[in-house]
Design brief:
The structure is a homodimer of 287-residue chains.
Chain A (H helix, E strand, L loop, with lengths): L1 H28 L2 H6 L33 E3 L7 H16 L14 H11 L11 E6 L2 H22 L1 H9 L9 H4 L2 E8 L1 E3 L5 E3 L3 H18 L13 H7 L6 E9 L7 E3 L6 H4 E3 L1
Antiparallel strand pairs in A: 2-3, 3-6, 4-5
Helix pairs in contact in A: 4-8, 5-6
Chain lengths: 287, 287
């Protein structure tokens, strides 16, 4: 017993250090989501799918601007049922001709048209009207080539290593691969950045709710606007190129690349896969 | 020293157990993303932002369908520069009149128009042409009311507990709260579901690449189509209601609610906040 009692202090000290260490780690290990959920009511069916990566938390020096907006009457154009039907058919026919086109002519496109197309994209709704988008329009040949180099280098790795056989196989029918001539050839590239947060006039961070969904909606309107003027594009989301392209284009840290759209007229030899779209009954359910 | 040597076995045994425990935990703590990354080339600047929650992995019984698609010439309409400019201005003017409207008239809307609007949404591009969207159109009064009850119950909790003062404050200027009359009043509700995966003809799971981005793009085109026929909506993403609404509407497990759009004519007393949109120079960068 004398043996024991003489060593106990050392032993206890070592145990204390180890237990302290364990405790510290177990706290650090607590999942973030749990912390997030703490101010919510925990329910088994809670759906977190409607949350994108919007950064909302007090870890930011977040603040809001006082705005006391006037509310004004809204009286838009009203069409007769016949006009509505006709307009809906016409717009559907126009949009139904849109295809993702990888064969783009080098002919320049009118700058004013691109301006209007981007103005149109900017009419999209956004979470709490934050308008979290930046459209970078690149027409400089050197810069386009640098973009191509970055994208092709990454895409080759994507196709050969990251994406896996199945994904590559799924894309085979679309005849896509990592060689992207159109990045050199297209007269302009539109790089769409989502702003994961913004800034208030005082420089403090401003939350951009649902920024990815908002910017994607805006891209939908951009595609409609391009189709409406007879220009083509292909919606690409080049994996892993975001940081390098953001750095090349000197975009700030709050902006992340969402999509890269090469834009122009279709080339005379443009081909597209003979895809069919789903029937209305396969995409719509009426209750 | 004798004291030491006699206790060493016990001490070492205790230390071994503790170190073993620590080691086991540190391995368990290893972030999942690292595991994901293992088949990629690890690089410090790797951008994971371009990945949404697309389920791609061998944990699914995934397989692909053999398709050998023909490629056909694509020769769309070509407009003169003057026509392009005019069309781009006209479309911008039309879209610029779009507003998120919470005052919706109960008047019914022509079913064929809604059909065409959804057909139009279905022309959106999607990752590997998977068309991962389901549009549920609800016009039944009872069902609309049940949807309202689910949404209001959750939204009240959202506003009072989950969203936090700042978010609620940011929405104040838009005069939104958890009371959603329009869910009863609007002649139709469009619930937009993203299919997080699909099924092949043999019943095996099919990967839906970038499904959330694809469905959001489709929603952008849907908004354009609604605006084009003079109907209004407000893009809502009701937090935490997804599973209950999916269950109510008997949608399958692979579908998750992305957006809920009440659709109709604006009511005669419709008001909107007097918001301004950013100037072109604030959303576009030309290089």
């Amino acid at each position: 017993m004398a043996v024991f009692s003489s060593l106990t202090p050392v032993f206890v000290a070592v145990l204390c250090v180890i237990i302290g260490f364990l405790f510290k780690n177990s706290r650090r290990r607590e999942p973030r989501s749990k912390q997030k959920r703490s101010d919510q009511t925990a329910r088994p069916w809670v759906d977190e799918d409607l949350q994108d990566d919007t950064e909302i938390s007090s870890k930011h020096n977040d603040a809001t601007e006082e705005e006391n907006l006037q509310h004004i009457p809204y009286t838009p154009a009203r069409y007769s049922a016949a006009e509505m039907l006709e307009r809906s058919e016409k717009f559907y026919s126009l949009m139904n001709l849109r295809r993702s086109v990888r064969f783009i002519s080098p002919e320049p496109v009118p700058k004013e048209v691109i301006d209007n197309v981007i103005r149109t994209a900017g009419t999209a709704p956004s979470g709490a009207h934050t308008e979290p988008w930046t459209f970078v329009v690149v027409s400089d040949a050197d810069l386009k080539h640098k973009i191509r180099e970055i994208v092709e280098e990454e895409e080759e790795i994507n196709y050969k290593q990251r994406m896996g056989h199945k994904w590559v196989h799924d894309l085979k029918k679309l005849r896509t691969n990592w060689v992207k001539d159109y990045l050199d050839v297209a007269p302009c590239l539109i790089l769409v950045f989502k702003q994961t947060y913004g800034f208030l006039s005082g420089g403090k961070k401003k939350t951009h709710y649902y920024n990815e969904i908002s910017v994607s909606i805006s891209c939908g309107i951009l595609l409609a606007a391009l189709q409406n003027v007879g220009l083509v594009t292909v919606t690409t989301t080049p994996l892993n190129c975001g940081p390098q392209l953001r750095s090349l284009l000197q975009r700030p840290a709050n902006e992340k690349l969402l999509m890269l759209l090469p834009v122009g007229y279709p080339s005379s030899d443009a081909k597209v896969p003979d895809l069919k779209r789903k029937d209305l009954n396969d995409i719509m359910v009426t209750v």
